[in-house]
Amino acid sequence: MAKKLNIARLVEDLGGASTVANMAEVVRTAPYGWINRNFMSSIVLEKILTRKPELDLDTYFEEEENDQDKTGSGT
Predict the structure, then answer these.
(1) How big is the chain by its Cα radius of gyration, in Å?
(2) Could you give the CA distance from residue 5 to residue 23 in angstroms, rounded to a whole number?
(3) What's residue 70's pLDDT?
């Protein structure tokens, strides 16, 4: 099983989109894009961790169920 960063929970726990955008030095709406695309660059994570060094990112990684991991026909 692969692991996936739960960006929505991370943003919520850090105080919402505006707060996280301020930490990452990006526009206020950028966190919504990260959530929708399920992608956040390592540069953004680095900026957030610089502002919140006590943040444990490991708690935001969750098991991702992949269809490729299942046996049987995909059709």
Answers:
(1) 15
(2) 18
(3) 58
Segments making up each domain of the chain, as ranges: 2-65
Q: 73, 11 in Cβ contact below 8 A?
A: no
CA dihedral sign, ordered 33, 35, 38, 43? positive
Residue 25 in this model has a pLDDT that exceeds 90:
yes
Q: Which fold has domain 2-65?
A: 434 Repressor (Amino-terminal Domain) (1.10.260)
What would the pLDDT profile of 31-48 be if each residue is shown by its tens digit? 999 999 999 999 999 999
Angle at 20 between CA 16 and CA 25, to 5 degrees: 150
pTM for the whole structure:
0.82
